[in-house]
Design brief:
This protein is mainly alpha-helical. The protein contains 13 helices and two strands; from the N terminus they run H-H-H-H-H-E-H-H-H-H-E-H-H-H-H. It has a two-stranded antiparallel sheet. The longest helix has 27 residues. It starts with a helix and ends with a helix.
């Protein structure tokens, strides 16, 4: 039965990928770029859901882990001319190593101490990037994954190429993360999150489990960072500000921090908010300063409203409502 369900879900991912690729050829350049951005946020938010929703560890510095993946990708691409696929694999591996080192410290911390440690990483990384010339300083480094293959046709633009790469990476990573969360590792993380003492008494090595969660989450975040730098064409400290980490956490809460299936809600929201904010600012004619800060204000407001009214996310809220309805009908 489990194998049948797994095959059905794999088929769903394949069909979704086919639909996305068809859409990529039929929408304008702006929508294609936004589609690539949504795919990036899907990957990034899923890393937060894995870490926080399942293992119970709070990170305020996932933007820094994304930056590690992005810098690893651009250096391997520019300095060693690695193929595109290998470039993203390297981003995952280097970010995962960074996550393992951070996870080793995180296993000894919890609550605000862990959040503070990851926050310090997000704040300190831009200064670190400016200390090494190989990282390009404030100007950053251009990241070019190359032109689309000529076999795809002359009308196949660079942004469509980015969309194809980002969408394929998002589908593969989501499928892998979903399978990991359904595995023994996912069950161990949930057990440790609920009660560490009980989990340890049942034979789970809680510290090792936490380190593994941080490692996998960091690897997924590194992939998201490499994809993000691909879509904007550059890797620089300004591409991974502290606000990015807060936005990812907000996206995870909007998705339902313990519900991977709602990840698209958070990703679409994060991509749509700047456009909505710009439209609102244009209509009401506010100052340039308020226009700049309006997206952050809207994200913060959404976060507060979600925590107050749908703390588990809309998808989990819907499931709970349906379960209660089914229980009432049964009785």
């Amino acid at each position: 039965m489990d194998k049948l369900k797994g095959a059905n879900k794999l088929g769903l991912y394949v069909v979704s990928g086919f639909i996305l690729f068809l859409l990529g050829n039929r929408v304008d350049e702006l929508r294609v770029y936004q589609g690539a951005s949504i795919a990036v946020f899907v990957v990034a938010i899923s890393s937060i859901i894995l870490l926080t929703g399942y293992s119970g560890q709070v990170s305020l510095g996932h933007g820094a882990l994304m930056a590690i993946g992005a810098y690893s990708a651009v250096i391997s691409r520019n300095s060693f001319h690695t193929p595109v696929i290998l470039t993203f694999v390297i981003a995952v591996l280097i970010a995962a190593i960074g996550g393992a080192l951070l996870g080793a410290a995180a296993a000894r911390l919890s609550g605000p101490y862990l959040a503070g440690t990851t926050l310090a990483l997000a704040i300190g990384l831009p200064s670190l990037a400016n200390q090494f010339s190989i990282l390009g300083g404030e100007q950053g480094i251009f990241f070019d994954v190359g032109f689309p293959p000529p076999s795809l046709g002359e009308g196949f633009t660079q942004y469509k190429w980015f969309f194809w790469i980002a969408a394929l990476a998002a589908l593969i990573s989501m499928w892998l993360v979903a399978n990991i969360l359904r595995s023994r590792f996912g069950r161990n993380w949930r057990a440790g999150r609920s009660n560490e003492t009980a989990a340890a008494l049942s034979g789970i090595n809680v510290s090792r489990s936490k380190i593994l969660a941080f490692t996998i989450s960091a690897g997924v975040a590194g992939l998201a960072g490499a994809l993000l730098s691909m879509t904007i064409g550059i890797v620089s400290p300004s591409a991974f500000p502290l606000t990015l980490s807060f936005s990812l956490l907000t996206g995870a809460v909007l998705s339902g921090v313990s519900t991977l299936s709602g990840v698209m809600i958070g990703a679409v929201t994060l991509v749509a908010i700047p456009e909505i904010a710009d439209a609102v600012a244009t209509r009401i004619g506010v100052s340039e300063r308020l226009t700049t800060n309006l997206p952050g204000l809207m994200v913060s407001t959404l976060l507060i409203l979600t925590v107050l009214f749908v703390p588990n996310g809309p998808v989990e809220q819907h499931r709970t409502r349906q379960a209660r309805k089914a229980a009432r009908e049964k009785h």
